[in-house]
Write the structure tokens for this entry.
Amino acid sequence: MPPDLKQLIRLQELDIRLAELAREIAALPKHVAEIEKKLVSHERKLEADRAALLANQKERKKCEGDTQMQEQKITKLKDQMLGAKTNDQYRAFQNEIEFCQKEIRKAEDRILQLMSESEPLDKNVKQAETALKAEKAQVEAEKAQARERTAADQKAAQELKEERTGIVKSINPSLYQRYERVRPTRKGIALAEVVDGRCTACQIALRLQYFQDLKRGESILSCESCQRILYYNPPQTFEEFEGGTRVAMS
């Protein structure tokens, strides 16, 4: 295999790894943003639950105050009723007292309803506070891991870029240009190995003479179908064919 071709194979390995690192580096901030967005959503839910619990407590306190006020009013009405001089006045006091008693019952019913509603609200708030505390710790841990991973990826990418620069300088410029022309049109894969006379990228069989020329390694050839630069690795073991079936010798 020509030395330049070996270097080109290594160059493709570097480019594939650099692309992987670039995707990972780009994905980490998105992941952090997603978990932070989820955390904010849970914080808002907790705030809503706290607001609902506070509103419940305020209304219950108001109902209790209304009950106390109506009870005080009844006490005054009863005192005034003792001084009633006519039946109409007496019945008027009675009607007012009955109205106050109805208002007390309504307030008490509402207090009971609010108490039943406050129990799950209070439970939700306490559970959410505990869960949110744990989630915040988890988010901070993931953010720290993301920062460490990003730093490691950036360092690795820098080292690979330096190696890549050295390889580019060492190979024939026209070959490198050829590599760069093919790479963007083939999803970053500019080279393909030939196995059993086929390009492993597009699976098209090479012409027999073309395959023989490739094996001789006198020139660097491209796949006539997908245009990728081809390379061939000779078998490392003895092989024989029996009835058209390849059999590896042990």
The radius of gyration is 41 Å.
